[in-house]
Specification:
Elements (H helix, E strand, L loop, with lengths): L3 E5 L3 H13 L4 E5 L5 E2 L4 H5 L9 E2 L2 H5 L4 E3 L3 E5 L4 E4 L4 E3 L2 E4 L3 E3 L9 H6 L8 H12 L5 E5 L10 H16 L4 E5 L8 H11 L4 E4 L1 H4 L2 E5 L4 E4 L4 E3 L2 E4 L3 E3 L1 H5 L9 E4 L4 E2 L5 E3 L4 E2 L7 H20 L7 E11 L2 E12 L2 E4 L5 E2 L6 H23 L1
Helix pairs in contact: 1-10, 1-11, 6-7
The structure holds flavin-adenine dinucleotide.
The site of flavin-adenine dinucleotide has 38 residues, from helix 1, helix 2, helix 6, helix 10 and strand 23.
């Protein structure tokens, strides 16, 4: 009897887990369920918004996973999981029994978190925090905006997908505006009082886009009260209005809906796991990786999801092969482009310490503050190299 592993979600976590599981257990039946035929990565989607790359640049398909790695890929949505019967139901009516199930469903937006934020608002004020149609929509709005317009970016509180992402986005939109609509402005209305790599970003903004980006911390403007999507207006808690010509509202998030529906999430909407194996603390033989999981000090990033996919694959392999669970080590680097030739990064190595994933002392850090232009250029090239290597690790 071949052991069957069903993996739900073909993004950073799911593809990495499928591919490495195949390496560890040659005869396992591995089924990946993902509705989309084409997966668009969020990493480098900010370069698409800025017109530096076409949509194709961030598009990937599942052919090689199928043909070279023997993963059965089913393009369906998982609508229900029964953790007791150990079965997953698909939208087309099929039911897949499993020995182990891995969920990497990413995030969903918390629709109830902001007054006035409904389905129509996601069109009028695209989040573009899941890449694809939302990326196209935000790009089209930026292209249609007049010179002299205001772009509002409203990032949420922690934790959320990709902590440096909103600030890379502000940077690359500024790069686009500087060339094509130089009288325009970017207003970042943050929920937070500080953000990832803040000093480095602000230094880069000063150097590349002086006066174009204004960042307002949460305690200064009061934080998000409500929105009026039709008017493209954001209101603070004190009902102060901020009207934009383009509004990129990035709402608070939670684990992908299927994880919540299966009862895997805590009150905050994220899924607690045994951080050594990523097995859910709620149900046995069910694993949650990537953004949806609570993974100690690791950020919600694609690199982290890839690393967790490998650790989870090793944990499942250890169960199947009846060998001892290896002691995992985890890794993450988040590159951000402040401009096409201006890269910065934050990196860390993690290990289990006192039952939690914690960064290893002196194992990482951020890019230095005082360096020459060549150093920033080099990091921008490393960012591209990282993208090529991680996407070939997932899809190649
Ligand atoms: P995803 O990659 O989102 O994959 C989830 C998949 O599950 C989706 O394909 C979805 O269709 C599928 N799914 C959901 N529900 C179901 C269901 N019920 N049935 C079947 N399938 C389902 N990270 C980095 O490391 N580096 C970066 O430079 C970086 N840049 C970013 C820039 C931006 C603008 C953003 C928004 C994010 C960025 N990230 C970056 C973060 C990264 O995109 C996420 O952390 C990563 O995608 C998480 O992987 P995941 O597997 O958890 O989810």
């Amino acid at each position: 009897n071949r052991p069957r592993v069903v993996i739900v979600g073909g993004g950073f976590g799911g593809t990495s887990c499928a591919k490495y599981l195949r390496r560890y257990v040659k005869d396992a039946e591995i089924i990946l369920v993902e509705p989309r035929q084409t997966y668009h990565t969020c990493p480098f989607s900010n370069t698409v918004l800025a017109g530096m790359n076409p949509m194709d640049f961030i598009a990937h398909d599942y052919e090689t996973l199928r043909t070279a790695h023997g993963v059965e890929v089913i393009h369906q949505t998982v609508s229900e999981i029964d953790p007791v019967a150990k079965a997953a139901s698909l939208d087309d009516g099929r039911t897949l029994g499993y020995d182990y199930l891995v969920l990497s469903p990413g995030i969903d937006m918390r629709r109830d978190a902001i007054e006035g934020y409904d389905e129509a608002a996601t069109e009028a004020m695209p989040h573009a925090w899941q890449a694809g149609d939302q990326t196209r929509l935000l790009r089209a709005q930026l292209e249609a905006m007049d010179d002299g317009g205001t772009v509002i970016i409203a990032p949420p509180n922690n934790p959320f997908r990709c902590p440096p992402g909103p600030y890379e986005r502000a940077s690359l939109i500024a790069h686009y505006l500087k060339q094509h609509k130089p009288k325009s402005k970017i207003l970042i209305l943050d929920a937070k009082d500080k953000f990832s790599k803040q000093g480095l970003f602000m230094q880069g903004w000063e150097a590349l886009y002086p006066g174009m980006i204004e960042w307002v911390k949460g305690s200064d403007w009061g934080g998000m009260g409500r929105v009026d999507a039709g008017q493209k207006t954001v209101y603070s808690m004190f009902d102060k209005a901020f009207k934009g010509d383009v509004v990129n509202l990035i709402p608070p998030q939670q684990a992908g809906e299927i994880a919540l529906r299966t009862g895997l999430a805590n009150d905050d909407g994220w899924c607690p796991v045994d951080q050594r194996s990523f097995e859910s603390t709620m149900h046995k033989d069910l694993f949650v990786i990537g953004d949806a999981s609570v993974a100690g000090q690791m950020p919600k990033s694609g690199f982290a999801a890839n690393s967790q996919g490998k650790v989870c694959a090793a944990a499942i392999a250890a169960r199947i092969l009846e060998v001892e669970l290896p002691e995992p080590s985890y890794v993450n680097t988040c590159y951000s482009l402040v401009g096409p030739d201006y890269g910065i990064s934050v990196a860390a190595v993690y290990r289990m310490q006192e039952g939690q994933i914690k960064s290893v002392e002196d194992s990482g850090g951020v890019s230095p503050g005082e360096v020459d232009a060549q150093f920033r250029r080099d990091e921008a090239r490393y960012a591209e190299g990282w993208y090529q290597s991680i996407t070939s690790d997932m899809f190649g």
